[in-house]
Amino acid sequence: MKKEVSIVRKKIDYVNKELKPLGRIRQKKEREYKEALDTFNEKEQRKSTTHYKIDGGLAYELQKYYSRPLDCEAAQMVIEN
């Protein structure tokens, strides 16, 4: 019985030795994945902010363009047609 327990303990120790490096590798990969995901999310946030600013600027410029009064020649052309 003691011999069997000793054999089982040795097998458990061997498996634990094999699992330690795998656990470290897994933790390292998780950190790398999290960093990559954070970087991706940050870039997407910047991208959406930039698009929002561009769209807002275009809307402002269009509003400014359409709200200005027509010059005399253009008004005459509109009236004649």
TrEMBL record:
<dbReference type="InterPro" id="IPR007033">
    <property type="entry name" value="GORAB"/>
</dbReference>
<keyword id="KW-0963">Cytoplasm</keyword>
<keyword id="KW-0175">Coiled coil</keyword>
<comment type="similarity">
    <text>Belongs to the GORAB family.</text>
</comment>
<protein>
    <recommendedName>
        <fullName>RAB6-interacting golgin</fullName>
    </recommendedName>
</protein>
<keyword id="KW-0333">Golgi apparatus</keyword>
<dbReference type="Pfam" id="PF04949">
    <property type="entry name" value="Transcrip_act"/>
</dbReference>
